[in-house]
Design goal:
165 residues; mainly alpha; 73% helix; globular; Arc Repressor Mutant, subunit A
């Protein structure tokens, strides 16, 4: 956990875009590691296997959240607003709001989820192209093109921020 913890947390947060959900998924991933460690092939690197478990959990979470969205909208008030008790600001999110003002977070938010994923895996998790390809179940060429497009887009977004647009 010491070796992969920080990178895994950032990776999960980049996928679900919500700190508390990412923390829940982080814990769940380590539980899955403990439950499925007998399926791990010690001849292969641990990082891609770990990130694959996390990725699957994160995308399952997003699918459940998308599926539940129509039911959540029924709980809202007549004008589509949440009930009054849900409208109060949540002070637990204050730290996340401050972090989101960081330049890196603003730039990464401008990327597609596929591009954001490869950027996190390459630069924060420090996985190789081959490991990312295996983790995402795509060809290496796809990883390279996503990363190339992501870096080009980050350059564009940075130029926009610097020019004040």
């Amino acid at each position: 956990m010491d070796l992969f913890g920080d990178a895994l947390m950032r990776y999960l947060a980049s996928i679900v875009n919500h700190r508390q959900d990412a923390e829940d998924l982080f814990q769940g991933t380590w539980v899955r590691v403990a439950e499925r460690i007998d399926r791990f092939d010690p001849e292969r690197p641990f990082g891609p296997w770990l990130f694959r478990l996390a990725r699957n959990a994160a995308y399952d979470h997003l699918r459940r959240r998308r599926w539940l969205r129509p039911f959540e909208s029924r709980r809202r008030g007549e004008a589509g607003q949440p009930p009054a008790e849900e409208q109060r600001p949540d002070t637990r999110d204050l730290g996340q709001k401050i972090i989101s003002r960081d330049l890196t977070a603003r730039l990464l938010a401008g990327l597609d989820s596929d591009q954001r994923e490869v950027v996190h895996l390459r630069f924060w998790a420090e996985l190789s192209y081959e490991e990312i390809a295996e983790l995402c179940a795509v060809p290496i060429g796809t990883v390279k093109s996503r990363l190339s497009r992501a870096l080009a887009r980050l350059g564009e977004l940075n130029a926009q921020l610097e020019s004040g647009r």
